[in-house]
Design goal:
Layout: H1 31-46, H2 50-60, H3 91-100, H4 110-137, H5 147-155, H6 157-176, H7 183-193, H8 202-225, H9 231-238, H10 257-270, H11 277-282, H12 290-316, H13 331-366, H14 377-400, H15 404-437, H16 461-469, H17 472-505
Helix pairs in contact: 3-8, 3-13, 4-12, 4-15, 5-6, 6-13, 6-14, 6-15, 7-14, 8-12, 8-13, 10-15, 10-17, 13-14, 15-16, 15-17
Length: 519
């Protein structure tokens, strides 16, 4: 992994060599070229590694032939210049921002445990798909820097723009997930720190935020085990009256369908790192090893979040709320966890805001409107205006909907679920069909006209059918997963919106642009 560094915003990115990789449009490059150069790239990275993993590599790419039997190449031990994206968004910044804001609490038990586990398995499966496609499409000649690059290779430039829009929306909403009473202060802080275009010093803060989150978890677990639930908060957020005050737990819980779906979206939120997988691999010297880190990360998420959710529910039962530390009845401990959470959230919001602004600037100001570079004088003025507009919009969202579970569920449904569960299967279908459609045609070599080796054009139905039928069962399976994830996203968005409407009707609930806290 490359060392976190400044992004050539206040100066040149030390990770980028003098030679720059020339930009290109993926829809103007034949698919065969991506496969050809990716095969050579993997051979470079795997050179001298036969004793540890060549047999697995050979089996993995046996179908595609992506690892040539003998390729005489010189191994360059330095990280290629293309490993550092030319866009002004650091991969390390995105990674740390994602980690800093992760939360997961839910109120079911057996069904919740099983669903959380199976969602983890599904996230692992789709993550492996992203890994496989990256290995087959990335090369020094045609580098894959991020999720939108991968999408463009398979479905064209329009699909790339759609990915960038969704990514921007997700980052904006992540910034806006805060309480209305804090929104004014939050906006002023955001507009101030947002003027800092380099996040070189944010790396250590992001690591610090992760430990703060763990500390909040530990304090919450200790507090709920030795104090009664926060009955007032349970009534205000979930409309659960105190009653006898007796905590009731159950293996199965009867909740309205929309409430169950919102709970599922909270689980989806936990597996929201897929948007960053491509960025992670782009920074690795040997991207093949990415699967090892992904397995460890998924196991950590399942273990920590699962134990935390079950533990809190076991002590608070029907009074469990989200975020869980708000269920602490003791004023002192609740205040302490609130302070820790706010500090962590400020760090995360600063990271997300800065990254979101860079995505907007690069993909809209520079790419679409051909604006000046961010390091130029004109870029500085445009950046100031974008910062003010971005955080003002975040303020409107945060103040308009002061409901943590419902707004985070909406973010999960509209964006996070797509990057983790919806897009990878349909991208994989497109990749497999294009790959298998070229089987049997003469081997591609650089400089050759594609029309000389292709028996038909890409828009010919027979070509697509030839690509689909070879692994029809796998393509059908992935297409069904895509449809299921898309339907779940629709249900999640609908349920979250219904939850927002219902939340405003509860007596004593926080109002839009008000000062009363939701819990």
């Amino acid at each position: 992994m490359a060392t976190p560094a400044s992004l050539a915003l206040e100066g040149k990115d030390p990770r980028v060599h003098e030679e720059e990789v020339q930009p290109y449009h993926a829809d103007k490059v034949p698919f065969e070229a991506f496969l050809h150069f990716a095969a050579l790239q993997r051979q470079k990275e795997d050179h001298g590694f036969e004793s540890q993993g060549s047999s697995f590599m050979s089996r993995l790419f046996k179908k595609t032939g992506a690892v040539p039997a003998i390729v005489d190449v010189n191994v360059d031990e330095k990280v290629s210049p293309r490993r550092s994206p030319s866009i002004a968004v650091s991969d390390e910044e995105r990674i740390q921002a994602n980690r800093a804001l992760r939360t997961a609490t839910w109120i079911s038990f057996v069904s919740g445990v099983l669903l959380f586990f199976f969602l983890g398995l599904a996230a692992f499966y789709t993550g492996m798909q992203l890994w496989y496609m990256y290995l087959n499409l990335d090369s020094d000649e045609y580098p894959v820097h991020n999720y939108s690059d991968l999408t463009e290779r398979i479905y064209g430039r329009f699909a790339r723009h759609c990915i960038n829009v969704l990514q921007t929306i997700q980052l904006l909403f992540n910034v806006a997930v805060c309480f209305s009473v804090l929104a004014v202060i939050w906006t002023v802080i955001g507009m101030t720190v947002g003027q800092i275009r380099s996040l070189q010093n944010y790396g250590n803060l992001a690591h610090f935020a992760i430990w703060l989150n763990l500390l909040v978890i530990f304090i919450t677990m200790g507090a709920v085990a030795h104090s009664p639930p926060n009955f007032q908060a349970a009534m205000q957020e979930n409309n659960v009256s105190m009653g006898t005050g007796q905590v009731i737990t159950s293996a199965t819980i009867n909740l309205p369908f929309t409430a169950q779906i919102v709970g599922v979206m909270q689980m989806v939120y936990s597996y929201g790192g897929a948007m960053l997988f491509i960025e992670l691999m782009a920074e690795m010297k040997r991207p093949f090893d990415f699967w090892k880190g992904m397995v460890c990360a998924q196991l950590l998420i399942v273990t920590v979040y699962l134990l935390f959710g079950v533990y809190v529910y076991a002590f608070q039962g029907q009074y469990t709320i989200n975020p869980a530390n708000q269920g602490i009845s003791g004023f002192g401990l609740q205040t302490a966890t609130n302070i820790l959470s706010l500090v962590s959230a400020i760090i995360a919001a600063g990271l997300y805001g800065n990254i979101g602004l860079k995505v907007i600037y690069v993909n809209i100001v520079q790419d679409i409107f051909k604006g000046p570079p961010l390091i130029s004088r004109g870029g500085r003025f445009i950046w100031v205006g974008l910062v003010l507009a971005y955080w003002a919009l975040a303020f409107v969202i945060a103040s308009a909907v002061p409901q943590f579970s419902n707004i985070s569920g909406l973010v999960a449904a509209l964006c996070i679920l797509q990057f983790t569960y919806t897009f990878p299967p349909i991208l994989f279908v497109g990749f497999i069909m294009q790959r298998d459609a070229i089987q049997g045609q003469p081997e591609y070599t650089p400089g050759i006209e594609v029309s000389q080796i292709r028996p038909d054009t890409w828009y010919n139905f027979s070509r697509w059918w030839r690509g689909f039928k070879n692994l029809w069962w796998l393509n059908t399976f992935n297409f069904l997963i895509f449809l299921a994830a898309l339907a779940t996203a629709g249900l999640g968005a609908f349920s979250s919106i219904e939850g927002i409407i219902a939340g405003f009707k509860v007596a004593g609930s926080a109002t839009s642009f008000g000062c009363q806290a939701p819990v």
